[in-house]
Amino acid sequence: MFLWSKNEDRVAIVQMNAELRHAQLEMLSAECATNRLRLRFSVEDMASFGQRDLLRKAMASATALHEYYGSITRHVSNLNSTAAPRTSSMPEEKVVAAIDHVRQYLQDQRRTYRPLGLPLGTDQHIAMKPFFPLGLLSGIRVVELRNQRVPNPPFYEEAKALGLTNLPELAHMTTLTFEDVVVFHEEGNQGENKRGENNRGQINDRRLFHALVHAVQFKALGLERYTELFVRGFFRTGAYVNVPLEMHAFSLEAKFAEEPDEPFSVEEKVRLWSNQGRY
Question: What is residue 82's predicted lDDT score, i.e. its pLDDT?
């Protein structure tokens, strides 16, 4: 079973939802094609004159899908009872207040940690250069926390009183990005180096890449817009993992981890999602 506190699981969860979205679109297409058949031909005609091999394959696919999604249905009711309120059930003034709280928190954390940060190391700069603008990389400051964690924001208690019980625990997150400041939590022994995961202290390339994607999002969208999209995305989806800003960061991180020697522009992909309204 996946755990949101594990970085590898968070990436897998985002990939799972991306594949689920693709499957849902494919099934919608199949449903439309089936409806066209239903409108034109009776069940008796299909049974009598339909090509047997095609009918057998279509029925086998439909049965398999019914069994799989039916088994998921039995678990969904329990999950729904713990889901966070959606924007539609949250008064707009509360949403606006939440946006303001988060924006102020991000600004405060940047002011707190930036004086403690260091520029990217030479190896880190070289590893990230094929994916990120040089201007952004030169402005990034990195803070490595040891034997301490970033605490949850003070407004969490008020949020929990509103029924938001699945807020992300900041202490469990491996990285936190406050505009152009990246804070890394100590994660213990990271084991052997893996492709795309070159260890440098408590920072590896994969964790750094994810954090820098958020830095690009901050730069491209601006603090105000980023905060609004994040908060409204959380209310809309009911889960931090499903906020489009976070989903995009994890999907790009996964792409980097799979092909770390294949350069691409993170800034272009972020601006594309922004222009298409996908955030």
Answer: 47
What are the beta bridge partners of residue 176? 183
Structure tokens at 28: 């919608």
Task: Report DSSP state, residue 114.
Answer: G
Pair 46, 92 in one domain = no
Same domain for 106 and 162?
Answer: yes
Q: Determine the Cα–Cα distance for residues 9 and 68; give it in Å rounded to an integer.
A: 22
Whether residue 190 has pLDDT greater than 50:
no
Note down the domain range covering 25: 10-80
Query: Pick the residue with more confidence: 96 or 8?
Result: 96
Full strand arrangement of the beta sheet holding 175-178: 141-145, 181-185, 175-178
Distance CA 130, CA 132 (A): 6
The whole-angstrom separation of Cα 142 and Cα 183 is: 6
Report yes or no on 5 lying in a domain: no
The answer on pLDDT for 258 being more than 70 is: yes
Q: Let me know if residue 4 belongs to a domain.
A: no
Q: What is the mean pLDDT of the chain?
A: 83
Give the ranges where the chain is alpha helix by DSSP (H).
7-40, 43-49, 52-80, 92-113, 122-128, 134-139, 156-161, 205-221, 223-237, 244-258, 266-275
